[in-house]
Amino acid sequence: MSHAVHSMSMVEVPATLLVAAAAVVYARGWFRHRRSQLTTISVGRLGAFMAGLLALWIAIGSPLTAFQHELLTVHMVQHVLLMAVAPPLLLLGAPALPLRYALPSRSARRTFHRVLHSPRTQSLGRFLTHPVVCWLAPVAALIGWHVPAVFELAMHSRSGHAVQAASFLVTGIMFWAPVVRWPSRLATAQRWVIPLYLFAATLPCDALSAFLVFCDRVVYPSYLSSPRLLNVSALNDQACAGALMWVSVTLIYLVPAVLITLQLLSPPRTYPRAAELRV
């Protein structure tokens, strides 16, 4: 219990303030852009970004974090939120424009625009949003952090756990960037890469999940000595965590893949020509 109180007082308040600050900055920029532009960022994008921040807060700032050292299932909920739920919602919010308009002066906004569109930034952006890099980065983070020795390091170090959470969020944003941004910019033939990209991403998650579900020993020693909440054994908790990742990640990745596939298979819309309208 003392550990939970300590966790709530030392971790949740800074994380909550950070998420709240991000919400205020985005909302400030969104309202400024809406007042000054004919083409505005939609309310739907505002809602998506705020939903993404809510998912992020649940993962790193809510009372849920008090139980991450007692239940691997709670830890897995955090990982799914950080990698598969918050990133696509944050990207759907198109944060670049609101962030730019949230800056206090026109000169600061012009500087931000120049930096964002500079050749070096554009070159780095192309590298970081290349589909191969975007696919490999979260896979490396997921597998690397779930190696028992590395996982235990994060469990016993506040800074290590913060780095783990940040790497999940950053690589999650990288992974979802092609899915959220690229389909509208690609030719129809190239868009078929996106469903394959999403399907392939489920495979390493499925392998890790299956290992946790069917392993006959507790993989992470910290959970052997932790208090057993709800009278759930460490081995059953591990199997539950693996099943949670297996089901949630498969659904989250495959649903957009199916929707994009159906969109690509549907016949293109045809609009009547002007001569036909006159008849």
Task: Provide a descriptive summary of the structure in words.
By secondary structure, the protein is mainly α. The chain has one domain. It contains 14 helices and no strands. Helix 1 crosses helix 4 and helix 2 (43-60) packs antiparallel against helix 3. The longest helix has 35 residues, at 2-36. Mean pLDDT is 85; it is low at 1-11 and 274-279.
Please sum up the structure shown.
The chain has 279 residues and is an all-alpha fold. The protein has helices spanning 2-36, 43-60, 72-92, 96-102, 106-116, 119-128, 131-145, 148-155, 158-181, 188-191, 193-214, 222-225, 234-265, 274-278.
Write the topology of this structure.
Blueprint (H helix, E strand, L loop, with lengths): L1 H35 L6 H18 L11 H21 L3 H7 L3 H11 L2 H10 L2 H15 L2 H8 L2 H24 L6 H4 L1 H22 L7 H4 L8 H32 L8 H5 L1
Helix pairs in contact: 1-2, 1-4, 2-3, 3-9, 3-13, 7-9, 7-11, 11-13
Q: What are the defining features of this structure?
A:
279 residues; mainly alpha; globular; disordered C terminus
Distance N to C terminus: 77 Å
Based on secondary structure, the structural category is mainly alpha
What is the residue-averaged pLDDT? 85
Number of domains: 1
Provide the helix percentage.
over 70%
- What string, H for helix and E for strand, traces the elements in order? HHHHHHHHHHHHHH
What proportion of the residues form beta strands (DSSP E)? Answer: under 5%
Summed up, the helix count is 14
Number of strands: 0
Overall 3D shape: globular
- List low-pLDDT spans: 1-11, 274-279
Major β-sheet profile: none
> Whole-number radius of gyration?
22 Å
